Amino acid sequence: MARTSRQPSLDAPRGRSGMLSRNPQPSRDRFGRFSEAFARGMGTSGFLIGMTVFVAVWLLWNTFAPVPLQFDPRSTNFTLLTLILSLQASYAAPLILLAQNRQDDRDRVQIEQDRQRAERNLADTEYLAREIVALRMVVTDVSDDVVTKDVLRAEIKALLEQLDERSAVARRGLLPTDAAER
Questions:
Q1: How far apart are CA 117 and CA 110, in angstroms?
Q2: Is 162 within 8 Å of 156 (Cβ atoms)?
Q3: Are 166 and 149 in contact (CB under 8 A)?
Q4: Are 92 and 35 in contact (CB under 8 A)?
Q5: How far apart are CA 5 and CA 2, in angstroms?
Q6: DSSP code per residue over 108-175
């Protein structure tokens, strides 16, 4: 019999709801993506121009504005501006280092994949070279000629022509096809 009420039962765990159901610690990947976006943003010319304009306006306002309107006067050596820039630098440096570490990890993985791909390519090339040598040896055994590229090409062309003739004959229905033999 199914329950119709939404009352909690003692045999089922109580679930969290609302804001408490979220993981209180951000995932490392999310924080890493944030640090990369932050570092990428700080490395743009727009950020540098914006910071320059911000500091210039700050200095001009607190130098030339009427004294009651100045919030970081020149007489205190722009203490608030220094504090803000120091705070920005103290957060920027570790975030940039974290972004660099993530990039190093990605580079390491890419280098390993490149190395594995190069090993596969080398193995494939060696295999193909052995196959070509084996073909040359077979052709040398069949014909008494010295096998050169031209002789090998001529033999392959002759084999291809024979295959084309057989497939043409099979299409016309003169030879049994693989499907008819089964």
A1: 10
A2: no
A3: no
A4: no
A5: 9
A6: HHHHHHHHHHHHHHHHHHHHHHHHHHHHHHHHHHHSSSPP-HHHHHHHHHHHHHHHHHHHHHHHHTSS
Tokens of 62: 């607190």
Number of residues that this document lists for the chain? 182
CA neighbours within 13 Å on the CB side: how many for 37?
6
Radius of gyration (C-alpha) of the chain in whole angstroms: 38
Q: CA–CA separation, 41 vs 45, rounded Å?
A: 9
Model confidence pLDDT, tens digit, residues 44-88: 899 999 999 999 999 999 999 998 999 998 888 899 999 999 999
- DSSP per position, 159-176: HHHHHHHHHHHHHHTSS-
CB atoms within 10 A of CB 151: 15
Instruction: Please tell me the pTM assigned to this model.
Output: 0.48
In 3-state terms, what secondary structure has residue 44?
A: coil
